[in-house]
Amino acid sequence: MILTISIRELFYGNIHPFERDVPKDSEGDRLNQLINRHTATLNNQEIQTPEKLKGTLSEQSSLCECEGFINSFRLGVKLMAETLCSEQ
Question: pLDDT digit string (tens) for 49-70?
Answer without folding.
Answer: 888 888 898 889 888 888 888 8
